[in-house]
Amino acid sequence: MSQLQQLPLQRLQVRERSDNRLAEHFQRDEALLLSEIFRRNGREDLVQTATPPGYSYVREDARPSVPVDASGPVMQIAAHPGDGPDFFYATYLKMAARTKYRSDYHEVLLTDGEGGVAGWSPERTRQIRVEEARAGAELVGNTLHFLGYPDGSLSSLAASARTRLITTLAAMIGDIQPCLLVVHPPKNDHPDHAYSFLLTLAALELNAQAGRRVPTLLIHDVEFGLQQKSLWTSPALDPLTERYPLHSPDSLVDISSTHQTAQRALHEHKTQMYDPALGQPKLYADLIDTLARVRGLQFLAEGAPETTRGQGFSHIVIPGVTSEQNVLPLRLPAGSFYERVHNDRQEGIFYDRENVFPALWDSL
Ligand SMILES: [Zn+2]
């Protein structure tokens, strides 16, 4: 082999060595952040990496071959004040930076969160939390809709109240006609969250029966990323639910440029960040930021700044009821959407994605 031919190989080896050092560095950071998350429930040594073995997140820039209408409002159905900034504001702000599509955002709050401060009366808590939510929304520019159902009781509403809520949600979906609807995942970390998902599905069913536009349905990340027992998806469909203690979203959004604004909106929810009785930050106040760092490391490319932050989502396809087309990547600036893929496609079966995105799987 001539000297000339050896040169690229030598360069490659040097690059590999520095990539390995970088990878070790990121792995250390990731393990530290994860132990921070798991320390709260005494499992800090359990998980060293957030991406399950055999999987990775790859940047998805593909555009659909057929035209897709990705225009229209964005809607979120949230159980409590604070859930918007926790799980979606940063991604919305990233979408709003794009001007091709309308970006109006309606955040529907099923409860006023009146049970959220120990030692305060529901009336006082309600008033303060509604004010906090408005202050946070002002930073983001979204429209809040308070439905005033009882905090902590969404899973045990009387049949008449449940029917009324589902009908109201279906009417709102019909009025707003969102192209994208974001809701809590069907996990049992908080019963209000899990039932928000089920109530939303029922409303979407009514919406579909009325022949209206069916939106793309996304579930956001689970609370603090911790895997919980699934209420809705069977382990056979999503084996990671049972096998891996950290939730693994279908996709991650690069929110590096908007995370700080979303954090400011979150910190407007002072009663949830600080314990008014003890005058100290709450145990989990920093975990949304910690999770954003973990999600950022999961798709971090070599040489990218360590200020990268991420937010996770999964696409729920119910034929005839929700859209099979995930419009999220179309609404985001190019290069900010990452998909989870299995490194060996033989084993990768999640939901009905192989049917929904055959072209994607075939290309792996
Ligand atoms: Zn909540």
Protein architecture, described:
The chain is an alpha/beta fold and 364 residues long. It has a single domain (56-363), classed as LmbE-like (Rossmann fold, 3-Layer(aba) Sandwich). The protein has 13 helices and 11 strands. The chain has helices at residues 3-39, 83-87, 89-96, 122-140, 159-176, 191-209, 240-243, 259-267, 270-273, 287-299, 328-331, 353-356, 358-362, and strands at residues 55-59, 74-78, 105-111, 143-149, 180-183, 216-220, 251-254, 274-275, 280-281, 310-316, 337-342. The radius of gyration is 21 Å and the shape is globular. It starts with a helix and ends with a helix. Residues 1-15 and 346-364 have low confidence and may be disordered. The structure holds zinc ion.
Radius of gyration: 21 Å
What is the CATH H-level superfamily?
Answer: LmbE-like
State the major sheet. Answer: 9 strands, mixed
Strand content range: 5-15%
Which overall shape is indicated by the principal axes computed on the Cα atoms?
globular
Summarize the structure.
With 364 residues, the protein is α/β, with parallel strands linked by helices.
